[in-house]
Amino acid sequence: MNNSGFTDIYQEIGVGFILLLEQIEALIQNLNTKGAEAFRDGRYANTREIMNQAEQVIAVKEQVETCKKKWKDLLQRWEQFLTGEITEASTASPLPKEVMFPEASIPQRDQSAPLRTPRGMRTPEELYCQPILEALVELGGAGSVEEVLDRVGRKMEGILNDFDREVIPSGGMVRWRKVTQWCRLTMVKEGLLAPNSPRGVWEISEAGRAELARLRANSG
What we know:
By secondary structure, this protein is an all-alpha fold. It contains 7 helices and 2 strands, in the order ααααβααβα. It has 2 domains: 3-91; 125-219, Arc Repressor Mutant, subunit A (Orthogonal Bundle). It has helices at 3-40, 44-82, 88-91, 129-138, 145-155, 175-189, 206-219; strands at residues 142-144, 201-203. The two termini are 33 Å apart. Residues 103-120 have low confidence and may be disordered.
């Protein structure tokens, strides 16, 4: 794996923290609503249990936020290493035997063979951008997560590989669907999707429409 591949993994895990925090925040809001309903109905034992759950979830959220910050620091250090701000010599330390591999053990690709997507390599995130934008335009500018994912899946039928279609063991979600959600966060940051759309709804922005026009012009 090249340095870019490592950077992608660092960034994907960082996005995973963002997605996790979003889900935890939604859970906290739901617990607060449930607790208020129980209190209003006079179910005080239920209220105490729900509030106890909420407090524990908030504590976990704080731990995840700490991990997210540490991961961001790791990514920043890795990027500094790639740009030469941190040299190999300055980070050198003895490696445990289990991570030291003789150079001869690294398989070499036949340079005459055609390039293919290696097994275990997912389709690049940037290839999801145009299908997402197209799906949203087809849906009238906005759509639910499931509506968008279904359309993206159909549009990328001939692009996705077997690795993309595997279920991620840790989350039980098909990999390409998770990557589509990672891509959505990137697109929000880039201004291509609206940042303030209702929960569970994706919405294209004017910048997103302009980007789709540019992508179509370039591909046409």
